[in-house]
Amino acid sequence: MTPRISLRGISKRYPSVVANDDVSLDVLPGEILAILGENGAGKSTLMKIIYGVARPDAGSIAIDGQTVEIESPAQARSLGIAMVFQHFALFDSLTVAENVALGLPPARLADVEARLAQRSRRYALEIDPGQRVHDLSVGERQRVEILRSLLGDPRLLILDEPTSVLTPQAVDRLFDTLRQLAADGVSIVFISHKLDEIRRLASRCIVMRTGRVVADVDPRAESEAGLARLMIGADPPAIAAHDTPPGEIALQVSSLSTRGAERRSWLHGVSFDVRRGEIVGIAGISGNGQAALMAVLGGEWLVDPDTVRIGGRAAGDLDPAQRRALGLRYVPEERLGHGAVPGLTLAENVLLTGDTLQSGGLIRLNQARELAAEVLQRFDVRARGPSARAESLSGGNLQKFIVGREIHAAPSVLVVDQPTWGVDVGAAARIRNELIALRAAGCAILVVSEELDELYELCDRLLVIAKGRMSPPVRPHDIAIDEIGRWMSGLWAPAAAPAAGAIA
Amino acid sequence: MKSFALVARATPSRLFAWLSPVIAILLTLAAGAWLFALMGKDPVQGLRVFLLEPLSSVRALSELALKATPLILVGTGLAVCFRANIWNIGAEGQLIAGAIAGGGIALLATRESTRAFVPAILLASALGGAAWAAITAWLRDRFNANEILVSLMLVYVAQLLLAWLVQGPLKDPAGYGFPQSRLFEAAARMPLLIEGTRLNIGFVLALAAVGFIWALLARSVIGFQLRVSGLAPLAARYAGYSGRRVLWFSLLLSGAFAGLAGGLEAAGPIGQLSPTISPGYGFAAIIVAFVGRLHPVGIVLAAFVMALFYIGGELAQSRLGLPSALTGVYQGLLLFFLLACDTLVGHRLQWRSAARAD
Amino acid sequence: MEIITSLVATTMSAGTPLLLAAVGIVVSERSGVVNLGTEGIMLVAAVTGFGIVHLSGQYWLGFVAGALAGALLSMLFAALAIGLLTNQYATGLAVALFGAGLSAFIGQPLQGQTLPARGADGIALLRDLPLAGPALFAQHWLVYFALALTGAVAWFLFRTRGGLVLRAVGEAPESAHALGYPVRRIRFAALAFGGACAGLAGAYLSTVHTPLWSEGMVSGRGWIALALVTFATWRPGRVLLGAYLFGGVTMLQFYLQGQGVDIASQWLAMTPYLATIVVLALISRNPRWIRLNMPASLGKPFSPNG
Questions:
Q1: How many Å separate Cα B106 from the centre of its chain?
Q2: Which residue in chain B has the smallest CA separation from C182?
Q3: d(Cα C48, Cα C199) in Å, to the nearest integer?
Q4: How many domains does chain B contain in total?
Q5: What is the mean pLDDT of chain A?
Q6: Which of B143, B336, B358 is facing C185, going by the closest CB pair?
Q7: Chain C positions in Cβ-Cβ contact with residue B160 (cut-off 8 Å)
Q8: What is the value of pTM for the model shown?
Q9: What ipTM does the predicted assembly reach?
Q10: How many folded domains does chain C comprise?
Q11: pLDDT of A94-119, one tens digit each?
């Protein structure tokens, strides 16, 4: 059978990195091919080349046996290639129909709406064409993206990390759609770093590492550990285990309700606590109130004093510096621009949360430099020194620095938002181990993360946030993944919690 | 098809951050020479009049320093604002308000008054400028109104206010009906630095202001908070810095500096209040701040370059018969060239195959 | 009655330069670019238009020259802000300052010059109607052109594919780029249009509204037009209302002076600027509302190379 698409010797180089190095692969009609690799392995670049958003420095592409030069997304679409981006190419203030129409050659809006309705029925992807995109949930937005690509009658559909924003139930529905498309003869290329999903969906898996194809396997014949080894190139680092019982309550949130800019991010009666010597995790799809909760805990949003208690003290109306004085430290989700100032040096960035480094209205730069050097040393941060600019560090190193900066202050409560997002495997392991060590030292730690595996590894208790409401706490080992998935859609029983959830 | 493309740098180039203003100045001079030629004048002659004559004697240098004084003062204050990402475009209005306040005090002096008037005038000017800037700060703080448009509208209001004052309540009864105030008494004039020139203590004040701001930005807590607020507003909130404090501090400070410059002009070389108190110093200072890279030392240098343009323009008019508005053209060109050269700070030129025609 | 017809007529005339400039700004800002240089563009166009009419005796030539000058200056802005990715706000300011200087420079020989007489204004027949005639139908043709242009831009933005694409580009240029639209070219075109409109506005000011040239004669109308577009949340219909409202305020001072109201002229002259400040304050109080209506990418640089 002639491959639907054939890549030979594709290479692409950017100023600081080789994104693709002599990549060759074939995809047959009706086949579901997964491309597995870590962040930075070159998967997205390869897809951009196929979709005409980027040009390869070397190599050739053939569609149905014919060599082609793909120079633009419009041309790719005319060749039957469609792409659903990881970061949706949608326009918030326009309607679903208008968004879809923009992805197609010029046509009457009414025609577009009709075809949209037809496709949406066929693949059970319900959507209201007249709704504005900014009112849609993330899962619904993805549906719009997929429908837009389907309306072009694609013969090759590429999906870039489609499940990172979906609940487990939504993932099932997506997979059903994809299987049906494959049965209709559409080739599917599915990019992911989630091993279990790849094994569920794909019959073939290409593993990429640092720009090269390192394996072409049947994922169902491999174990997850085997796939992970191929992806990382080594055995994944082990995480230390934990045993000590937790102490008194260090952070308490009681009936926290807020109204923010977007309805989706309102909080409704959120209550939970974190004890010394334990790690509590908050799972949930992004956009369900985490940002508001973090802003409240970090002190960027002030609320009623009693709703947040730090070490027993009413703290809801205290500003960040006052909270730091009470022993609460916070690591925000975004490194550059929020947790650190890109253009300032590491020594200067230490000043952001280094309240003791000021006196008489002046800053003590020498002491800041020393402190920064200590953090670099203790947390194995690869940087030129305290005078290195924050933006010159790699993601993993900067994250180590920021987390390290806060841990170094010996907090009694640490709040961390997405501790290892976008961070290489080595640094991620180091950060997780630091959190575990901090727990052993008696700190109360709250971790918000979208990676369920991470939460399962680290946490003593788990909470799920959905649509601004907090589930009751559970122990990770007492709850199955698809139950958590239902909770992420808000479907937990209101007052019920498995018996082992409450800590005596 | 191969062509040039601009590709973002991983970290901004330090080299170009310094080089860019220099290249911009050179380009402006080149454009200037070309303009001279276009108007039928010898470009070399033109450049000599424009560039060298203002530097040719102690007297000429004193005039240069005198012209640079308001530019240094206002530019330094604006640097503080711009670093905090607060776009105070209405420094011209604050300068005028300061001139009005200082001039108002100056007009109270009589033949018998003492030199105590001098600090009084300076204080009043600074307060007047700060008060004018406070309007913008309040509107931004309370109503979230865009400070660019508000401060600009207030420039027109300040100009009209001054026009009304010198044509009405403050008009010189012995002035043949011209729109101007009485001439200030000697006690209310700024003490001179060098006898025989017009250079007054304002120049020293300006340099002192520069030193003060340098220390403030580098060493003080509020200076650091200001810098972070401008560079990364989210990080500033994370750290717990008060955006409101930064807003008021920077606007009041830059307003005070601009007002001070206005008072110095009125009580210094001009010696009275008139509608033409400022040939657009408040706007030229914006360019000075940019060309000076928002850095105190750079601003002093840029102010002298800009002062050179001002005086060169006046000389070009009297010596070569060229329109004095040439100065404005050069100032605008300088800013354009600077912005263009600045591209190379954040981006690199690459010769490569075009990704897409766009 | 005379007073009312004259008020209506002068409001239309005074509102027209604001309307023309603001409609152009709506288009360019809808593409996601903010060009603060409108004041400078209007000044250069004003002096150019005046000069061309003075030299050639043809008014239409003056308008064309003004529009062209405006488009060219916008292209200079675009070359920097879009091509070289300079900061849009600083670049716009540079255009404003440069325009002020350039117009003063070009205009020096033109100070105090006069223009040849024009034919009668207004729409034949209609202008002879009682009351409505002198109020509405005795304007220069550019006034009616501005109204038609407003309608055309509204239709373009909300009823055509081109307008949809423009709005998409302003909303999310990265998404538009990913879908294959030439974001930069579209922005260039939008800016050229905006510049041409501002140019027309400037030429109208110096050749029809007050047929003279004097340095700085645009007197802040360019800035007011920018504020107007924000007040009107980037909708042409609301822009029309706002432009005429402000035109009326501008004319109010002359009306009051004519009525012998005993306030010094300078205070009356402050009214448009103070009015702008007041409206700005009222409108901005709810930042969410502005953000909801604003083209989301306004002011942010876009590079196709990432």
A1: 23
A2: B358
A3: 9
A4: 1
A5: 86
A6: B358
A7: 266-267, 269-270
A8: 0.86
A9: 0.88
A10: 1
A11: 999 999 999 888 888 888 888 888 88
